[in-house]
Amino acid sequence: MKNESMTTSPVITKKSSSTVERVNWPATTVLVLCAVTVLLPLYVTVSMAFKTQGQAVDGNAFSFPAPFSLDGFFQAWTLTNFPVGAAMSLLVTAGTVLATIILAAFASYAIVRNWERRLFRYSFFYLLGAMFIPFPVVALPQIQLTGRLGLDNPFGVILLATMFQLSFSVLLFTAFLRSIPMELEESARIDGASTWQTFWKLIFPLLAPMSATVGIFAFLYAWNDFMMPSLIISDPAMQTLPVRQNLFQTQFSNNYHVSFASYLMAMAPAIVAYLFTQRWVMAGVTQGAVKG
Amino acid sequence: MSSISTPTTSGQSRETRNREIKHRQMQSPPSRQRKRRVEPIFYFFLVPSLILFTLAITVPGVIGIFFSFTDSIGIGDWEFIGLTNYIAIFSDPAILQSYLFTFGFSIVTVIAVNVVAFLLAVGLTSRIRMKSALRTIFVIPMVVSGIIIAYVFNFLFSNSLPSLGAAAGIPWLESSLLANPDFAWIAIVMVTAWQAVPGALLIYIAGLVAVPGDVYEAAEIDGASKFQQLVKITLPLVAGYVVINIILGFKGFLNAYDIIVGLTNGGPGTSTRSIAMTVISGFNGGDYAYQMANATIFFVVAILISLLQLSLTRGRNAL
Questions:
Q1: Rounded to two decimals, what is the model's pTM?
Q2: Do the Cβ atoms of B151 and A248 come within 8 Å?
């Protein structure tokens, strides 16, 4: 029926399809040019990283590397002690992502299922409070406390980063949990599942798209942040990759191919992770804005 | 077929559900709600977050406010000195300058980000080619480490642009923007905006996609130009998103730290020192209590802006 009606009214289909397919070329051109400016600093980073030392200091940052050289990467690898830095960044990032997802999902489930209880209701607003507290406000006492408690290391950063991520994550999880019908859970209960089993077998899998969003934001924050690790981690040997890059601001400042190779190795994982998880990154921004 | 069978089943289930609801309501009068005990496991789910949150954020916050009324230097003996720190702050040129710089920088950046993001969003939701590829590219700056991209821009501003300027014979390009105390902030605005545009862009795209297309068709029939449509239809319809973007952006920019450290480190002199940077200086400078008072004032400012946000976004059902 529907197909027939579409074909029997060619005037309408023709009109709408022609308006849909008319490409706005001026806008496309302008946007492509804008995209080039966005990519320019990233292009410079990549091309500088593959240059030889001689070409890196010739003053033309926009030239193509000729010849290709991996020298910058080899030197950066040892200068910044890349394996250790990457391990620390990985530790902080993995810890923050896991802790944020688990703690936020646990707390959100408890809050939503016991909303009529004052303790749980107030806890929700309490945990949301961190959205109003920027890190610089509490940074000084946190530096002192983590120092006294022996947490002036990546574990302290995991703890603090997780707590600052908690508000946004609880907000997303609770909004999603409220939309899950109780009947679904009740049927699991009838089958004899405990709350613990219900959470892991039913609720947590249902939360997967939200966990992806929460996880990728925790990942981007923990992997890219400079301020918190630079202030909390006291032993330079345990610093994360972004903090290690300040090496090139004081020493080796003319070995541009080395510094850019080092920047590239520190930035690339976040960009690659983004390219594979764009959907959740984009969803998270709009959900976070609308709900926050 | 299906339309005949559904009423009976759904009617049945509705009836049972109604009975259930009634049953529940009778069991639990509205005032003292269900006496049912909370399953212990729910405390296990919630309490770790509460304890860690209290230890990591609430306790440091309270400690900080407490010490802002003392003369502590971070270690050793201290005494209560009342509001002395707070009074001193209001006549401290370094702190006033950091507030002036941070607010000025934030206002300019918010305007720049929103203008650029809105125009890009309009472009990205129009009939263009390579839509998803372009969107992917425009979001990349958001996922790049702020300090590292600031180092990259630092190189561009202090090496590449001057050598381009020298080659082209443009005198004002020959010296680094970052070395100029009057204009270094422009570089900070540019890099911050470069990184902040994607977030605002995605929010605007969400807003623009929600605008029904027939509104524009009607406007076109009435003879409205593209520009008139943009100003008279699109802008009012996404006004809520503009408010959200301005406040979210402003809140973020007030905390500026990483990008400034990577570009100017507060210089030249102290011309680009942000509030966050002055607060953190209390860690090494020996004026711990003093900077805690500064942080407390900053906290009050952050709260005021958040309250403004709540009052502006509440009641906007469109969001």
A1: 0.86
A2: yes
CA distance A219 to A91: 11
Complex prediction ipTM: 0.89
Beta-carbon count within 10 A of A258 CB? 26
A130 CB neighbours in chain B (<8 A) are: 53, 57
Across the interface, whether the CB atoms of A138 and B60 are under 8 A apart is answered: yes
Is B34 part of the contact surface with chain A (CB cutoff 8 Å)?
yes
| Polymer length in residues for chain B | 319
Q: In B, which residues are within 8 Å of A273 by CB distance?
A: 143
Query: For A8-25, how does the pLDDT look when each residue is reduced to its tens digit (9 = 90+)?
Result: 344 444 444 445 567 888
Q: Please say whether the beta carbons of B299 and A133 come within 8 A.
A: yes
Burial (0-12, 13-18, 19+ Cβ within 10 Å), B163: middle
C-beta separation of A216 from A277 below 8 A: yes
Chain B environment of A143 (Cβ under 8 Å): 283
CB atoms within 10 A of CB A222: 29
Q: How far apart are the C-alpha atoms of A99 and A159, rounded to whole Å?
A: 8
Q: Which positions 209-248 of B are in contact with A (Cβ < 8 Å)? A: 241, 244-245, 248
Residue (of B285, B248, B276, B299) closest to B99 by Cα position: B276
Query: Residue A131: its chain B contacts at CB < 8 A?
Result: 306
pLDDT at B33: 47
CB contact under 8 A, A24 and B128: yes
CA distance B112 to chain A (A): 15
Whether the per-residue pLDDT at A145 is higher than 80: the answer is yes
pLDDT (tens digit per residue) in A59-90: 788 888 888 999 999 999 999 999 999 999 99
C-alpha torsion A251→A255→A258→A261, nearest 10: 110
CB of B141 within 8 Å of any CB in chain A?
A: yes
Of A104, A199, A263, the CB nearest to B151: A263
Q: How far is CA B6 from CA B10, B12, B15, in A?
A: 6, 10, 14
Helix or strand run (H / E) with residue B192: helix B184-209
Q: Concatenate the DSSP letters of all residues of B115-127 into one string.
A: HHHHHHHHHHTSS
Chosen for mutation from A12, A121, A140, A194 (greatest number of chain B CBs closer than 10 Å) is: A140
Instruction: State the burial class of residue A37 (Cβ atoms within 10 Å of its Cβ: 0-12, 13-18, 19+).
Output: exposed
